[in-house]
Amino acid sequence: MKQREQWTSKIGFVLAAAGSAIGLGAIWKFPYMAGTNGGSVFVLLFIICTLVIGLPVLLAEFVIGRRGKSDAVTSLKKLAPGRKWHWIGWMGLGSSFILLSFYSVVGGWILSYLARALFFKLETTDHSELFNSIIADPVEVLVGQAIFMVLTIWIVQSGIRGGIERASRLMMPLLFIFFILLAIRSLTLDGAMEGIRFLFVPDWSYLTSKTLLMALGQAFFSLSVGVTAMMTYASYLQKEEKLGQSAFNVSILNIVISLLAGIVIFPAVFALGQSPAEGPGLIFVVLPAIFNEIPFGGFFIIVFFILMLFATLTSSISMLEIVVSTGIRKKYDRRRRAAWMFGALIFIVGIPSALSFGVLANVEMPGGTIFDFADLLTSRIGLPIGALLISIFAGYVLSSAETDDELRMHPYLNKLWKFIVRFIAPIAIVIIFIASFLS
C-alpha cells in the first residue's frame, strides 16, 4: 500500500504553510483594512496581535497536526478517543469546502483581469464599470472559476512533494520577487513618501478599540487558522522539525508580505491622488487606474495580477488538501481521483456565488448576496468557532507532556504558550466573534 507522504524539507513546509496564510487576506484585505482604519496605527496593532495571539494559535494547530499524523478528523479521534472533539475536523472541512467555493470565484476574477492585462485590455477610463461588468457576466465568471479550480486540482492531485511543495517552492519566491519589483516601482513615483508616512508614521488619533478589534481580526484570520489547514499541513511534518521556529517563520512571512502589499499600494495611491480608504475595490478598481497613469504601467499590472494569482492559488490548494486528505484517509493511492471529484463538487457548489453579482443578484440571503452569505458562514462563523475550539483542545485536552514533547521549547516558553491558548486567545476570539456581528 502507498505510504503517507512527508515534506522533503523544513523550508518546503514553511513555504507551503506561509502560502496558505498569504492569500487574499494579506494582499487584498490587508491594504484596504489599513486604508480604512488609519494606516500606521492599524499596522502596528496588526503586527503585535499576529505575534502575541495569532502565532500561539497557529502553533496549537501545528502541535495537534503533527501529534496526530493524519487528517484533522482522524488526528483528533486519535488524540481524544471516545470523545466528540473530532467534530472540529469536520467543521474545518465544511468551512474549507464553502470557503474555496467562493474563493475560487475571486480567483476567476483575477484570471479575467490577468487575461485582459496580457492583451492590453485594461486601458479604460471607468474601472468601476469594468469590474461590475466582469463579475456580472455569467459566462466569464464561470469560465474563470473553472480554470482556477482546474489549476488548484492539478497541483493537489500530484501530492505533497510533487504537487503542493513543488508549487510552493516555485510560487512563493516568485511572489517575493514580484512584490519587491512592484514596491521599487511604486516608491519611485512622485509623492510616494506620503503613502509611506501613512503606512509607518503613527497617527495616534486612530488608536481606538475599533482599530484594535479590526487589527486583531485581520491578524488572526490572515494566518489561516481555524479551518484545520495548518493542522493538515503539520501532519506531514517530520518529528525533528522545530514547530515553534516554523510557526514564527510563517507569522513573520505573513507580516512581511502584508507590509510589502501596503508599500506597493499606498505610495501609488497617494502619488496619484486616490483615496486610501477605497475599501474592497482597491485592487480591482483603483490599482488598474493607477497603473494606467505611470510609464510601463501595462507591464507592472501584468506582474501584479500574476502575483495575485500565485497568492490565491497557494491558499486554495491548502483548502482543497483539507478536503482531499479527509476523503482519502489512509487510501493514499486514491488522491488523484479524490482531488478531481471533490474539486468538481466544490466548483458546482460555488456556481451560485459566482452568479450572485449577475443573474442571481436579486437573491437575498443573510449578509447580502449568496457570495456574502458564504463569506459570513466561513469568515465570521466557521473560522472563529474552529479557532476557539482548537485553542481549547490544545490548552485543556492535550496534556502538558504531549504538548511539551511536540514543542520542545524552553520550559518558560512552553508555559507562556499554554497560558495564551488557554486564556488570552479564547477571550480574544470571543470578542472578535461578538464584535463582528455587532458591527
CATH domain class name: Mainly Alpha
The topology string of helices and strands comes to: HHHHHHHHHHHHHHHHHH
CATH architecture: Up-down Bundle
By DSSP (H or I, 4+ residues per run), the number of helices equals 18
Helix content: over 70%
In total, the number of domains comes to: 1
Q: Sheet with the most strands? A: none
Q: Mean pLDDT, as a whole number?
A: 89
Tell me which oligomeric state these chains represent. single chain
Query: At the third CATH level, what is the topology name?
Result: Amino acid/polyamine transporter I
Total DSSP E strands: 0
Taking the alpha carbons of the first and last residues, their distance comes to 52 Å
Shape: globular
* Share in β-strands: under 5%
Q: What is the rounded Rg?
A: 21 Å
Membrane topology: Multi-pass membrane protein
InterPro entries: Na/ntran_symport, SNS_sf, YocR/YhdH-like
Main location: membrane
Transmembrane segments: 12-30, 42-64, 85-111, 141-160, 172-192, 212-236, 248-274, 294-317, 338-361, 381-398, 419-438
What is shown here, in short?
By secondary structure, the chain is mainly alpha-helical. The protein contains 18 helices and no strands. Keywords: Membrane, Transmembrane, Transmembrane helix, Transport.
Description:
This protein has helices at residues 10-21, 24-36, 40-68, 72-79, 87-118, 127-136, 138-156, 160-187, 192-200, 209-222, 229-234, 243-271, 286-292, 297-328, 335-354, 370-397, 400-407, 411-438. The chain is mainly α. It has one domain: Amino acid/polyamine transporter I, CATH 1.20.1740. Helix 1 crosses helix 12 (243-271), helix 2 packs antiparallel against helix 10 (209-222) and helix 3 (40-68) crosses helix 9 (192-200). The mean pLDDT is 89.
